[in-house]
Amino acid sequence: MEVKYLDLAGEAFDFEAAPVEYKRCSSGHISHTFFVDCGEGNRGYIIQKLNTEIFRDPYALMSNIKGVCNHLKRKIKACGGDVLRETRTVVATKDGNDYYVDPDGGYWRAFLAIDNVVAYDHPDSCELFYKSAEAFGKFARQLDDYPASTLNEIIPDFHNTKKRMDDFKACVKADKKGRAAEVEDEIRFVLSKEPMCSYITDGLKMGRFKTRVTHNDTKISNVLMDADTGEGICIIDLDIVMPGSILYDFGDAIRVGASTAPEDETDLSKVGLDLEMFETFVRGFVKELRGYISDEEILSLPMGAYLMTLETGLRFLGDYLDGDVYYHISYPEHNKDRAKNQLCLLSDMGAKIGAMQEIVKKYL
Ligand code: GN1
Ligand code: MG
User: pTM for this one?
Assistant: First the structure.
């Protein structure tokens, strides 16, 4: 898909040298992301056109990102790390703004690119997944003392699974595209899970779980890994950093990385929860958070995985019913296939919940 005004946007930012080439570089479902090559010997940059249908207040979003990245930079510096490599650095426009606004009112922002890193859509080994667990665990630890209540709520109720379920029920009722009949079984399966939807939000309300700064989109592709050492270097995609529960970040990472297949695999016989991968992630994540994560949180990690998978499945299915208005799709039934995939994973997680609980107990 061609993105209008990319060149104009590239010229607007205060880059070391003029852009010579743009390369699309994201697998995200929401925004458009490009790597900006500014010629040999010059720094590279990342430029993104924000989806303002979804991110309605670009300045509130950028204020969160800057707050969190500045905090991380202080922590990284204190450990002798590289502040330009281990977190995002926002690059301003030539006139000193966080955004370039194109003639159609589109919002563009830029970051320094990070050299010699790779990102994976799906882990192909336990070692790789372990590295991502360490990176996400460290991210949560470094932000443990960040005042979560000062963050703007970019998408209210983002991981409020009960609210997501209520929205889903409204989609089913409206059945805008007349698609509900084709996915009757999936709808019934989703609705049967309603009683457990409030588990995390109730825990936060009652103080059983700490309200923290959470990333909220912890798929492995959001960890940049050093191309030589394989270490998780930098957590990216900070658009929906908001107050939340550690169970969200753990759960979403498991949903993606401990599944035996990618999110849009259509051969459902390949989709399930890999318990070895699950344990691998628990080990790396809890190791980094030792002293910062409570026993209550550790014991609830399996529910985090379960609910994040349910939530993603019902969001894909709801978007299919609504006529594919939220997620970018590559073919007409993409959202339906993604939903089936997630619900298949959920069903396998249901069968393995006891095994997951036994695993987490070992890490108390
Ligand atoms: C969206 O755009 P992307 O791929 O980073 C979505 C996540 C979903 C994910 C499913 C803001 O993330 O919540 O888990 O797709 N982000 C938003 O792959 O809705
Ligand atoms: Mg994202």
Answer: 0.96
Among the four given CATH numbers 3.90.1200.10, 3.40.50.300, 2.60.120.200, 3.40.50.920, the one describing domain 126-361: 3.90.1200.10
User: Which of 25, 49, 51, 217 to mutate to test ligand 1, by most ligand atoms within 8 A of the CB atom?
Assistant: 217
pLDDT, tens digit, 9 for 90 and up, residues 173-217: 999 999 999 999 999 999 999 999 999 999 999 999 999 999 999
Q: Whose CA is nearest to atom 18 of ligand 1?
A: 29
313 phi/psi in degrees, rounded to 5: -60, -45
Determine the 3-state secondary structure of 299 from DSSP: helix
Strand residue runs (E) in the chain? 21-24, 32-37, 45-49, 90-91, 100-101, 107-112, 117-118, 212-214, 223-226, 232-235, 242-244
**62 C-alpha to center of ligand 2: Å?**
15
What is the third-level CATH fold of 6-115? Phosphorylase Kinase; domain 1 (3.30.200)
Could you tell me the distance, in angstroms and rounded to a whole number, from the CA of residue 77 to the centre of ligand 1? 30
CA of 170 to the centre of ligand 2 (A): 25
Provide the 3-class DSSP secondary structure of residue 112.
strand
